[in-house]
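ok trying again, last paste got cut off:
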Amino acid sequence: MAAVSVLGRGAHAQLAGGLAGAAAFAPVRRFDVDRRRVRVAATLPDAGALGDELAGVVRDACAQAGLTAAERAATPLLLAVHAHPAAGRASDVDGPATAASFAAELAERTGLGGVAGVYTCACVSASTAVADAAALMRLGRAGRVVVAAGYLVEPDQFALFDAGRALATDGVARPFSTGRGGLLLGDAVSAVVLEAGARDPLAEIAGWGRAGDGYHTVRPDPEGSGMARAIAGALRRAGIAPDEVGYVNANASGAEGDAAEATALHRALGPAATRVPVSSTKSVHGHGLEGSGLLELIVTALAVQSGKLPVNAGYLGADPACELDVIVGAPRPAESPYALSLNAAFGGANTALVVRAA
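nice, full thing came through this time. structure:
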């Protein structure tokens, strides 16, 4: 696994930032935000072009997995991305600037054996790609897959979220907290090598679940029905009971949907929902949109492997609508090898991944 975010370069930098619990939001310097209501995000100062950053994490992940050139050439790519970075800004003289062409360029640059799928389904893009990769391997249709996902905070999406009053005007993301006022965006570029019967695994994707609620264009079902079904499906595939879950890295971004996610956890986990430690690492590294699911999965996998659970930053106090055991102040020890990584997206899409420490 490999990752880049405001927390630094390398997968372990992401865990270190999550354990420190120090939010990394700062004034945006990458583009002009003088006319915006909110002017902060979690951006890496030395970030290169998205294609370069994605190529870097894919190469690093493949190198860590010990893949030879021949093995890379036999490994397909699943890519989660918003669009081709040049979309709408380039002519079609050299071909259309689509997400599919961007994925093909990335596979060629990194020596991978072509593109098996491209995911542009908003904030569940990366987690959906991971679920598809796991399903392919469980069905015996693939032995190894590289999943990559990337988003770098850019002016168009920043303007949309700001105009929609979705960003926190106080410059702090406060998941599950009283006084929360919205999300904040952040860079998220990462890659993982998923293998059936991996030689020296860091963690296992033990289960996955996906469900839609179709409640509203941008608001989740307040009853958490879709997320609850996704969690139940992931636990069923993993073959574990709710009380075996030792940590939840929640989708919660500090916005309206946090309460719906808390409700979903109670529906899916029952009495265990008040006991399982919960945090959202978006409180530290921001919301990376299409890149969020994979970055958060990496943090979750490393957390259960290390035995230390990340802090929920920005927390002011308990919200009666979010009755959960939120990790605040300092990291918690992990008491189970199993963790849930949750993501949700506009349109009512929900995903849940069960990670087991190797």
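cool. Residues 135 and 141 are 9 Å apart (CA to CA). The mean pLDDT is 96.
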